[in-house]
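Hi support team,

I submitted a single chain yesterday and got back a structure, but I'm not sure I'm reading the token output correctly. Could someone confirm the output below corresponds to the sequence I sent? I've pasted both exactly as they appear in my results page.

Thanks,
R.
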Amino acid sequence: MSPSIFYFILSALGLSFIVFIHELGHYLVAKKLGMKIEVFSVGFGKPIFVWYRGEVKWQICFLLFGGYVKIAGMAKEDGRELHQIEGGFFNKTPWQRIQVAIVGPLVNIVFALLVFTVLWGLGGRLKPFEDSTHIIGRVDPKSELYSLGVKAGDTITTYNGHKYAGFRDLIYNGALKGGKIGISGTKWNYYTGKESPYAYTLEPYHTEILHKEFTTIGVLGSAEIITFDSFDPANGSFSPMQNSGIEKGDRVVWANGELIFSRSQLSDLVNQNAVFITYERKGKIYQTNIPRVLIKDLRMDSSMKEELGDWRRTMGIEKPLDQSYFIPYEIDDQAMIQGTFSFIDSELEPLYPTPILEKGDKILSCNGISVEDGLAFFKEVGNKKVLLMVQKNIEPFSMTWLNQDEKFRTSVDWQGIETLSQEIGVNSIKEEGNLRLLHPVVPISYAAFIEKTTASKKGINPIVPIDILDKEYLFLGAITVSESVTYNPLPTTVFTDMLVDSWKTIKSLVTGSLSPKWLSGPVGMVKIMHDGWKQGIKDAFYWIGLISLNLGIINLLPIPVLDGGYIFFSLWEMITKKRIPAKAMEKMLLPFVILLIMLFIYTTYQDISRLFL
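Hi R., thanks for writing in. Yes, this is the structure output for that exact sequence:
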């Protein structure tokens, strides 16, 4: 049996257990109060196993994602009113009915608190660093937030008027249909250690980077501690990083002039059509990324085009000149900047930043490779390469959800990164303390990778991000992992946080600011628990506790069909001293039964759809 199937079975059993204890609560109290119990069912649909204990029919059904206890008198019999059925549910006093209805949800809530307490006693569970960090891992460069100077590596303190709790706040607020969002935090200069607070109110917007129904103010993800694990076991020999010098446990901290705070940020940089150059201006050394542009899109005079053509022929480059890449600057044969080029299509100009290089600047290196003249630069600018710096494998450090951001900032030699990066293109120094500059890496496109691996009959399933639809997407071919932290707040804190989250979700659904498509049905719950089992038993039990808590809370809502509905009916009878007629109750129940079935179908459809996204 494969691990995935085994985890699926455990997840289904876990969900069934949550429902079982809920219904067992109803059963035990109803039996104690003298109610006649007809059926106790674990699951729905056709029974697989049936047995009798006294007058109660016990059964296990094919669909294990639920269950029920059938008490006599829940439906009309022989034309009698519900309260006239001896031993029936409505034959008992309102207070007795409330006891039976409320005990199921309470069992789920108490069980959840018990699970959280046990996990706390065991030292908590491991949680991905990115789930609870306040450090930003990726910012949309097209956003207003980015234009205001907030970038990857800065921290968030409050988000939408509440204390920022981590990645779940980004997901939750991204799914809401609301107005402007306030964000505050701290901007960090990691090289100098300087901090500066910020606070902005921004309009959320849609971006093609996220799901079409999600909005953002520009924060696209949280920070990660990225360490290299291995190469794709089936296709690793084709990895662009195979000969880079990277080793297991190395932490990626810098790439092409940028400090790296997340895998998605690194991916953006790898797919950026730019070159990293070192240049000299008035005796000082600078470094920057300059966009590469197809020569056919640049407006240049015939003499410059002729010179580039000569360089192309001298270098033996077969690609046509118009299909070759250059930078939007006029460069002489000494690799000196003489001016800038405009674009043939004026619509291209907004895609490129204000010129960085100035007349008289001398280019010293491109992609980390020294260039002595324009000819060498032309050859190198045609190559897409990525320079990576790693912090060598050191002793692992212990992190908790309380100190993880501090550990993130203090565990890297930021000044060393600045020192070593400034040597690129000037000296041949490759190491500084425990930092090492890897050999330049030529990223490979998904299409090229497939072609290579197919030709070698080694398979065509490289380990790449799952959202790759564009075959021109570039990747480095390395399996990286993000470090985890120990998450162990007091069980009451976890319990309270979950209650607050549940209330916010219910409130948002009622007001219409949250679409019900983001709810999880039975399939989604099994998927969540399945993923939890993959992480370990503690993670699995956490999700079992969380789902149990949510099941208890939802069932307390004053909605007919749910336990809260029967509690409401009983309270109404206690206050008014009048029984609700069976016909009136049926009329109230029927629409909600239909809605519940429709919601079950809808959430199941959404759950299945998400599995194939």
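A quick pointer for reading it: The chain has three domains: 3-124+519-611, 130-223, 226-482. Let us know if anything else looks off.

Best,
Support desk
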